[in-house]
Amino acid sequence: MKRIFLILLSSAAVVSCSKGGGKSAGRPGAKTKGELIPAKSAKTFTAERPFGMVPVPGGSYVMGMTDVDFTNMPEKANPKTVTVSSFFMDETEVTNGEYREFINYVRDSIARTLLAEAAGTGGSESSTGASISDYAYASQKGGDNVTPYQSYLESQGGRDGYSEAKKLDWRVPLHWNTSAYPDEQYAEVLESMYIAPDKRINNERLLDANKLQYAYQWEDVASAVRDKNRDASYLKKESIKVYPDTTVWVRDFNYAYNEPLFDQYFWHQAYKNYPVVGVTWDQARAFCNYKTKRKSDFNNSLKKKKQKPMNFRLPTEAEWEFAARGGVENATYPWGGPNLQDDRGCYLANFKPKRGNYIEDEKKGDYVYTAPVKKFPRNGYGLYDMAGNVSEWTESPFSNSTYQFSSTLNPNMSNQAYREIKKTVRGGSWKDAGYLLMTGYRDWERKDSARSYIGFRTVQDIAAGSAKFKKKSTK
């Protein structure tokens, strides 16, 4: 009897430790004659390349200023050989158009939640948006929308954080045009998202940017590992105001006429393919979380569910510099050479070429400030604007001694980096002189600061041995 009890206890432990339970194991050894053989045949796994991203194959390189250091500033660090693993990286900086998708998702999520709360119980099964009852939570609509798990959660009063019982019905269209509001209660809910009439400028009806907050959570892995424990107490919950600070165009330059950019740069269609700016480090991380959620939600919506995607995140400083070098050893600039112009005399990046002159091409007279992405040549990995246009946030905290105490294998400060105020910024921008665009040059900014010359791009890890790499031509 004791032996049987121990066997049953061991089986329970195996089931309880599997994530999400998984499929039933069935009779042990029924198809494998008692041999330990994986249920699924081993197949070569190829990482799916996310849209707009390129693979950067892992390797070793000398990190830091390996060429002439024109700055001789304390921000530099002694060169150090390090190794980084493979990863996908956005081929361009995140654009205004891409970031507006994030803003629209936050806006719509808040609107749908407010409408669902106002709709209450007994919601309509209709998905036309003809009345506020159409916007009730999916669990309140009955029919095929409700799963047994949703019914169970509803009976338990939901759970802390996200609850399936409060799943929004995204099939119902939202009406933002006042003439299309279906009823008075709908109008009351939607109008609560706009700036109050007595606070409007020129009576312009605008969304209240302070209400556009993205709530998410992430795990403090470093603290959990240190404490040899892992539970919900290590989850960090954040609610971030995500609308870019458009005032940076005026605030960063006290004696310049930049009001047109303040008024139009983020929302005007003409700037759709320009890099987003005025975004803090925390807002950039929130965007990464949204990008991961968006892909996960799509995978879960498929009949044949795909594997959970790797998280999107900001690159570490070591990853960013390795990618910027484009596979060229000791590259001074992303294009490899030490010159800022090609053999035809054309500048290779968007920066300030001369004192007081912010234009790279006097004949065209374009790009006084930022430039649309993909207007300058890409580097050996197929990455655009790794020098100039806008500087870029990295995940890494800034310290003059970082290179001395960090690991030589995937150097990083772990996710304790969020505690550090100073963050490393790389790449140089449209307002910087040429030598600040060097691949080994480092700069920093406070993580709660937004600037007209700082943007970001995202990366995604690649499982070892799961991708084939092909070096792109820089022509």
TrEMBL record:
This is Gliding motility-associated lipoprotein GldK. The lineage of its organism: Bacteria, Pseudomonadati, Bacteroidota, Flavobacteriia, Flavobacteriales. Keywords: Lipoprotein. The keyword Ribonucleoprotein does not apply. It holds the Pfam family FGE-sulfatase. Residues 52-459 form the Sulfatase-modifying factor enzyme-like domain. PROSITE patterns: PROKAR_LIPOPROTEIN. The keyword Acetylation does not apply. One of its GO terms (molecular function) is formylglycine-generating oxidase activity.
